[in-house]
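Practice problem: predict the structure.
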Amino acid sequence: VYESIRTYNKKLFRLNDHLDRLKRSLAEIKIDYNDFDSLQEIIYELIEKNKIKDEALIYVQITRGSAFPRSHRFPQQKTKSTIYISAIDLPFNKGNIINGIKVILHEDLRWLRCDIKSTLLLPAVLVNQKAKEAEAEEAILHRNGLITEGSHTNFFAVRKNTVFTAPRSNLILEGITRRVVLELCNKLKIKVNEEHLRKDELKKYSEFFITSTTKEITPVIQIDNWKINGRMLGSVTKNIQVAFKELTKTY
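Answer:
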């Protein structure tokens, strides 16, 4: 399992939320690891040693460890977890956040435990590659006609000053930025409905955006060939972006 964590003002953003999600992922696949104090120390040490110029992106991966012989079951003997951590300068595309992006719709090819942040990413990679080939930045996934999330983002829609997003379930990853957006909506007195959007009813909504640790709040201005509002950014999305920027500026 893994986590991606970023900094704002050289501070790890929502670190406890990320670690709680990591603990949950580990528990769901029965990996026994609990040395999170050392984990935090290593992360800060890496940021310092790698001389991050501006903001950092931290990647943490924990596996069950190695065991022989190879098997499709957990090893009988206790194994030592393998831990990999990297800290790099944050790759950040402000242009997409300012101007918005094109996305495509694609059938959700993933398994039924998308709530676990695991390295089982091949289906997501395949659909994201299709997005790239369509000159889009993301693939928005649907299952049985219902929108779930993006291949590596959460997906939101807006209608009549109400924000809609898929509910927490085994079919989506509960993103940390998603959680922050819901908190900001509450602060801004923007109503939120956590319910699945129907793929064939998307044109009933006036704004869309995606969220993730690296993409923050990125407006969606085109879905497949549909140019939303003439590719103009919506006011609700802008208001949430402003609130998010204020939050991270003073973090």
